């Protein structure tokens, strides 16, 4: 379900993002599959969604495929836009989550 209003979309688009993504290694974060699933069920086009968060459609396509992941700022916008279906934390890989766990244990 997609609850987008004109005000919420304009607010998301006004937040400027200077860098749209980070290249991924062979691991695809769960965010790519979740974004693909959400977009497939959305009544809005991918181009409309990209514009709503101030990105370009090719960037959204790369995030959706898992080739590139969005920056944290964009991931946060996607979390708001999808009402939490695609969480910011969904864009970290299993290796990154494991490394973060080790660092927490050492601290």
What does this protein look like?
The chain is mainly α. The chain contains 6 helices and 2 strands; from the N terminus they run H-E-H-H-H-E-H-H. Helix 3 crosses helix 4. The protein is elongated.
How do the strands and helices of this protein lay out in sequence?
Layout: H1 6-14, E1 22-23, H2 30-41, H3 46-52, H4 57-65, E2 68-69, H5 72-81, H6 94-106
Antiparallel strand pairs: 1-2
Q: So what's the overall shape?
A: elongated
Number of beta-strand segments: 2
Which strand order spans the largest sheet, edge to edge or round the barrel?
1-2
Strand content: under 5%
| Poorly predicted ranges | 15-20
Q: What is the average of the pLDDT values?
A: 80
Terminal residue distance: 41 Å
Count of separate DSSP helical elements? 6
What structural category characterises the helix and strand content? mainly alpha
Residues in helices, as a percent range: 55-70%
Order of helices and strands: HEHHHEHH
Q: Sheet with the most strands?
A: 2 strands, antiparallel
Overview in brief:
With 107 residues, the chain is mainly alpha-helical. The chain has six helices and two strands, in the order αβαααβαα.
Record keyword descriptors for this entry:
6 helices; 107 residues; 56% helix; two-stranded antiparallel ribbon; mainly alpha
């Amino acid at each position: 379900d997609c609850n987008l209003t004109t005000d919420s979309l304009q607010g998301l688009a006004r937040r400027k993002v200077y860098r749209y993504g980070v290249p991924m290694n062979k691991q695809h974060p769960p965010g790519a599959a979740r974004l693909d699933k959400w977009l497939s069920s959305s009544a809005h086009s991918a181009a409309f969604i990209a514009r709503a968060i101030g990105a370009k459609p090719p960037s959204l396509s790369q995030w959706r495929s898992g080739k590139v992941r969005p920056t944290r700022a964009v991931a946060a916008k996607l979390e708001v836009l999808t009402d939490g279906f695609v969480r910011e934390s969904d864009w970290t890989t299993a290796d990154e989550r494991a490394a973060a766990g080790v660092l927490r244990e050492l601290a």
